[in-house]
Every structure is written in C-alpha cells, then in structure tokens.
C-alpha cells in the first residue's frame, strides 16, 4: 500500500509521502510525489494505487501540460487536465487489468497555488476522474493506508494551526502507520507550499532522521497511560491481584 497525506492549514500546505513499493515478493523504494512549475506558480502531485497506472497517467499529464499554449493559471484547471488523463488511461487499460485480476486503482492528491489562485488549494481525485476540494473543516486527506494515522490527525489538526505544527502531526501520523502497516516505510518525502509564495520546497527524511522523535512519542504515550486517572477502574480491580499500571 501507500501512505500519502495532504494537510491544508492557514499558512499553507504540507504533503508527506512514504516511498515503499511492494510487487509480489519484491520491495523497492520509489518516489510518490512529483512537483511541477506552472508559470508563476507551483503544484505537487501524490498518488496511491497501481504504479503502472500512476506512471502512465503522469506521462500523459506532463505531455498535455507541455502542449498547452499557456500554463495553467488556476489549480483546478490542472486538476481537470489530470482527471482527463486518468480517464484516458482507464479507457486504455482497465479491461486488460481486470483480465489479469487487478482493479483500476489510482487516487491523487494535488495541491499548490498557481498565478490566479487567491490562496493555496488541495484536491483529491478519484479513479473515475471526479474530484473534491479539501475544506477547512477537515483540513487533511490520506490516500493509501488510512486507518492508523487518522486518529492522530482527527484529535489534533485544525486549519488555524501553523505549518510547523502540521508537519509534527503529519510525521506522527506517518509513524503510527509505519508501526502497524508492513507496506509503509521510510524514507518519506515532504513538500511544503507556503501561502502566496507560489513555490514548493521538498525535503526527504530517512529513518535515522526521525528515530528520536518516534522513540520520544512512544515513551510519551506509555507515560501518559500510566498517568491516566484510574479511579474509574478501581472497583473492577478491587478484588483482583494485579501490578499497578
């Protein structure tokens, strides 16, 4: 599977993508985020699903962008262009994939800010080519392995939070997923889109870079559980000989 996370806060957008790929018994590392410059703005694309569908879709997308007489000046136009390529690949490959026992599987997070966008925006595109805009009420979206990192985000992340806070939360969501899902792992690629900068910054973290944070988080969780008030379970354990938590 995959862990790709997009978070939209007031200051901008953070994207986090793992790099593990599994194909049968083979495990490799490959980048799952791509960054593009469009005129005076920038956008990033993160994908989950079949690698072959992803590669073909992005090849068609890059060709379609190059053939445009002018760069996209609003991100939704790039989203529509990418959605067209997803539908094109579906028409070409869906039947053959089904014959081989595979579903046509691709989901895309695309975010950034182009020249005429009033602010940074983040979209999710489905395999059918339809899309939604990620709103301020739930300012994040995960594609790939969903469940393990979602509780951390639901309990903490808000639109008003800073980019620094969002990156901390996102890395903890990734770490929770990595611990529980064998097909998600380091290195991770981080992209940052600062509001009205029209630029995207990329950085890669390896396991040794974030190991101290993972260890700190795990010990803090255990300490918090030990310190959790226990009056509500005293009556249950009144007649049971157990060690204190």
Write structural notes for this entry.
The structure is a single chain. The two termini are 36 Å apart. The model has no long low-confidence stretch (mean pLDDT 95). The strands form three sheets. The protein has a five-stranded antiparallel sheet. It has a five-stranded antiparallel sheet with strand order 5-6-7-8-9. It has one domain: 4-Layer Sandwich (Glutamine Phosphoribosylpyrophosphate, subunit 1, domain 1). The protein has helices at residues 51-67, 75-99, 150-156, 163-180, 207-227, 231-234; strands spanning 3-9, 12-17, 20-23, 26-29, 33-38, 41-49, 106-113, 121-125, 131-133, 140-144, 188-194, 200-205. The chain has 245 residues and is α+β, with helices and mostly antiparallel strands. A hairpin with a 5-residue loop joins strand 11 and strand 12. The protein has six helices and twelve strands.
